[in-house]
Design a protein that fits this description.
The complex is a heterodimer of chains A (174) and B (442). Chain A has helices spanning 3-25, 32-45, 56-74, 84-97, 101-112, 117-128, 132-140, 144-168. Chain A has eight helices and no strands. Chain A has 174 residues and is mainly alpha-helical. Chain B has three domains: 3-56, no CATH class; 98-271, Jelly Rolls; 279-438, Jelly Rolls (Sandwich), CATH 2.60.120. Helices cover 16% and strands 40% of the residues of chain B. Classes of the chains: A mainly alpha (174), B alpha+beta (442). At the A-B interface, helix 1, helix 2, helix 4, helix 5 and helix 6 of A face helix 1, helix 2, helix 3 and helix 4 of B.
Chain lengths: 174, 442
């Protein structure tokens, strides 16, 4: 396949995974979009070195990790930024997790189907429309705090369900 | 580790993803994570779940139970995002390729058009598909494709016979000329044409995805997208063929027509209505750029900013920049012009995820005429104290500066062509819920 077309194909398919990784490394910054652009440019510059026999995402994440380190150096005085040491630990753990991302996502689909109607509604409010949680709180008289607490519990249930679903599928370290 | 043991960590993670975490809590989170592989894994799973839910945008439609009844479709937004990502990736490539394969303006080809003026995100790809860099006003070009990438960008070109074409972004248009005459392919966007009298039997042909227009000499404005072509004639006469069924209509001066791919739409040349001084945007139908999000539960629908790439001025800028834009224009079915009057103001209501600078601008037409100007400014939107990211801003027309000195200092007396609202680089979740032009009397 034409190398340019192959780059577009793989980047299109996996860009969201790189973005997800950046978000985990720098959860309180608004720089993710900009770094994602940087990563795409760096990957394209080195595209002739990509071994098409190997998986794309781990290779792409090495460029992303490099950009995270450069970004971290520029954030020396920021308080809502993880330390270099913790970032290295998270990066190491993520390297072991990356192959399970799609499996976890499929498990999430199953688990969302197990929520009851009220739980689904709250998740939908939180994730589908900006400001909808507050509107719902005002409409129903339920406090925002209570709604967000409910969401915290729902997320915990979903995580437990995802882990259980994966274990049932034979993943031992889910 | 049992889930119950994650209680305190989950509380911090909830505050992290809900963006309410304090500096002290963030420090506490770091302490919990440092050196604890189980906690780090929980952190990655928690944020991964949050990212998946954001990514998949759980909409009412997406709660459709699948197959055995125990799953949920989640790929609606992911497909859209992937499509956008693909487009962005392709554009990144185009931008990068532009850096790698730039060449000088056409040599060895017969020129057909000359650049009169351009501004912003404009790009020319010549014969052979090669991007051309270093273009300047006065350069003469053989046939090729003009891309005007952003709503605040434009280009004016002339053919050798004096025919003028003004392309306003976002637009993609290809120019060619041969023994059969001039040909313009407008794939999308808005053009304003002032066509000099053409030789008998060799009309200028304008092709869009939904219509073909024969022009012998006239002034008209045309807007096209994948599904419809809107054309307003100010002088002369044009013949429009609707490609969906081959029907033709002659459109005289002061008339307009819509040629849509779906044939139920009226295809008649109708007089343009009297101008109005106020305008309330019908977001769903007046959109030129942006994604329509239907409302629900008493909430209005909105236009979500569409991401596209700014690749620089004629390829000179090497770093691609993402723009996140909503572009709307008056497109009332009766073609009613919207007149900009003294003391009028624009009111925009929308939402952002956080405080940031937002650009507002609009393009104008001369009354019953061609594109005439662009006006724009940037405002820092402060969300402090605002309800769930909501913002509302009013901009008096006279406070919005022209983008070039050749434009009239004030837009008053001109017709509103289109309006854009956009953020630069970062996607701040811009959504627009209302756009209005309010006259002084209101």
């Amino acid at each position: 396949m034409d190398p340019t077309a192959e780059f577009v194909r793989l980047w299109t398919r996996h860009q969201a995974e790189v973005k997800r990784y950046l978000f985990m490394m720098m959860p309180r910054t608004t720089d993710v979009g900009e770094l994602l652009q940087e990563v795409s440019v760096r990957i394209w510059e080195k595209w002739d070195q990509f071994d098409q026999e190997r998986p794309f995402v781990p290779w792409a994440l090495k460029f992303a990790w490099f950009e995270v380190q450069k970004w971290r150096q520029r954030q020396a005085r920021e308080k809502l930024v993880f330390s270099d040491g913790l970032l290295e630990q998270l990066n190491a753990v993520y390297e072991n997790e990356v192959s399970l991302v799609e499996t976890r996502r499929r498990a999430l689909e199953v688990c969302l189907g197990k929520l009851n109607g009220q739980e689904r509604k709250w998740v939908q409010l939180r994730y589908s429309k900006h400001g909808a949680v507050k509107q719902e709180a005002e409409r129903t008289g339920v406090s925002m705090h209570k709604l967000y607490y409910a969401l915290e519990k729902i997320r915990a249930r979903l995580l437990a369900c995802i882990g259980e679903t994966m274990r049932q599928e034979g993943w031992s370290d889910a | 580790m049992p889930d119950a043991d994650h209680g305190q960590l989950d509380q911090l993670l909830t505050r992290l993803v809900d963006k309410t975490i304090t500096v002290e809590e963030f420090a506490a989170l770091e302490v919990q994570l440092d050196g604890d592989a189980h906690a780090q894994k929980r952190y990655l799973h928690y944020l991964g779940l949050h990212a998946d839910l954001l990514e998949t945008a759980v909409t009412p439609e997406s709660w459709t139970v699948q197959g055995r009844g125990d799953g949920v479709h989640l790929d609606r937004k992911r497909r859209t995002t992937a499509w956008l990502s693909g487009a962005a990736a392709a554009l990144v490539l185009l931008g990068l390729s532009g850096v790698l394969f730039l060449r000088a303006p056409d040599a060895g080809f017969a020129s057909i058009v000359r650049i009169v003026e351009w501004n912003g995100a404009v790009r020319w790809t010549g014969d052979g598909g090669r991007p051309i860099s270093g273009l300047k006003v006065g350069d003469e070009l053989a046939g090729g494709t003009l891309e005007v990438g952003a709503a605040d960008s434009w280009a004016e070109l002339t053919f050798d016979d004096g025919t003028k074409v003004w392309a306003s972004g976002p637009a993609i248009v290809t120019f060619s000329e041969g023994p059969e005459g001039k040909r313009i392919d407008l794939r999308q966007g808005e053009l304003s044409l002032d066509v000099a009298p053409q030789p008998s039997g060799r009309p200028l042909l304008l092709q869009t995805p939904s219509a073909e227009v024969e022009v012998l000499g006239t002034q008209f404005n045309v807007t096209a997208d994948d599904s419809a072509t809107r054309l307003a004639v100010h002088e002369g006469l044009v013949r429009v063929t609707r490609l969906a069924d081959g029907k033709t209509r002659d459109v005289p001066a002061d008339h307009h027509v819509v040629a849509a791919l779906e044939r139920e739409t009226d295809f008649d040349a109708l007089p343009r209505g009297e101008s109005v001084k106020s305008w309330k945007c019908d977001l769903q139908h007046d959109v030129r750029q942006g994604h329509w999000l239907p409302g629900g539960g008493g909430s209005p629908g909105s236009l979500r900013a569409e991401t596209h790439l700014f690749r620089g001025d004629f390829g000179e800028r090497k770093d691609p920049v993402l723009l996140h834009s909503v572009v709307v224009r008056p497109s009332g079915s009766n073609g009613t012009p919207v007149l900009l009057t003294e003391g009028a103001r624009l009111r925009v209501v929308g939402r952002l995820e956080r405080s940031c600078a937002v650009s507002f601008g609009f393009g104008t037409h001369r009354v019953r005429g061609a594109l005439s100007g662009k006006y724009a400014l940037s405002r820092k939107i402060e969300l402090a104290g605002q309800e769930e990211g909501k913002f509302e801003i009013e901009l008096y027309l006279d406070d919005i500066p022209r983008m070039k000195e050749s434009f009239s200092e004030s837009p008053v007396g001109q017709e509103l062509g289109w309006m854009w609202i956009q953020t630069v680089r970062e996607d701040i979740g811009l959504e627009v819920t209302s756009v209005e032009l309010i006259s002084k009397q209101e």
